[in-house]
UniProtKB/TrEMBL annotation:
Name this protein carries in UniProt: Transglutaminase-like putative cysteine protease
Protein source organism: Cecembia calidifontis
Keyword field: Hydrolase, Protease
Domain Transglutaminase-like: 171-235
Molecular functions per Gene Ontology: peptidase activity
Length: 279
């Protein structure tokens, strides 16, 4: 399967501004199940420099900076990607996992690395909801599938144009949310029972999906031996070869596709569009 992905971002400012350095998390991250055949990024105004860098979480991205004042910033990313089969259940645990569990425990050496991915506020409603599914499931994989599917079934998926992210407890109470809201809620549900989790931003393709899934958010949970395993609460699925990550991190603001600021007092209007076409 070959896809063409076009990702257009435009900031329109109410007056001329000076652009500070920007970070473009618009590079599909390396995975064995897809290959980038063609890729290019164009910016208007044209930057004086653009360089590929790696952030503290291993995400490849572009750092770019500008010289002239401008009343806009447009970024156009275009990729052709070949997808290959991928089995999201193709793993074994390399450590004994106690199941059922009340609070998951990692080995000391793993816990040091995963500490940021475990940060959360204690939420008793989350814990009650998750513990009920732990008790009803036969093993860790069945539990994760049941939790992901239950969010898909019991929380409505909505399209929200606002850039703000709902808090996990607000999404829980509203029984609905965007893919970002549902994913951030799932992250904190998992962290509330000791499972290290991170927020993922990227592209999702399925010709059967409704509009709004092209630029997508999902979750990855860390399991000993399996590593980071993708879960999509918006669709109730383990993420497979239809998911193309752009960045993953312990907090959503760290993985936004475009990150940067400007000097001045201008108002900003943001427009983002993503098209995915089967070739």
């Amino acid at each position: 399967m070959r896809l063409e992905i076009q990702h257009f971002t435009q900031y329109q400012y109410s007056e001329n501004v000076i652009l500070n350095p920007h970070f473009l998390f618009l590079i599909p991250q390396q995975r064995s199940y897809f290959q980038i055949e063609k890729g290019q990024i164009k910016c208007d105004p044209e930057p004086i420099a653009i360089h590929e860098r790696i952030d503290m979480m291993g995400n490849a991205h572009y750092q770019t900076w500008f010289q002239e004042e401008t009343d806009h910033l447009s970024i156009d990313a275009d990729y052709i990607i070949e997808l290959k089969p991928f089995n999201p259940f193709g793993f074994l645990f390399t450590e004994f996992i106690t199941y059922p569990f009340s609070f998951f425990q990692y080995s000391p050496e793993k816990h040091i690395f995963l500490k940021a991915f475990l940060e959360t506020d204690t939420h008793e409603a989350f814990q009650r909801y998750v513990h009920r599914l732990i008790k009803a499931s036969g093993d860790m994989v069945a539990f994760l599938f049941s939790l992901t599917e239950s969010i898909h079934a019991q929380w409505g998926h909505i399209i929200r144009e606002e850039q703000s992210l709902w808090s996990p407890d607000f999404t829980f109470d509203q029984k609905k949310g965007s893919c970002r809201d549902l994913s951030w809620m799932l992250v904190h549900m998992l962290r509330n029972v000791g499972l290290a989790s991170r927020f993922v931003s990227g592209y999702a393709f399925n010709p059967e999906l409704t509009e709004g899934h092209e630029l997508h958010a999902w979750v990855e949970v860390f399991l000993p031996g399996a590593g980071w395993v993708g879960l999509d609460p918006s669709l109730g699925l383990f993420s497979d070869n239809h998911y193309i990550p752009l960045a993953a991190g312990y907090s959503p603001e760290l993985v936004a596709p475009v990150q940067g600021s400007f000097g001045g007092t201008a108002l900003t209007d943001l427009k983002t569009e993503v098209w995915i076409k089967l070739l």
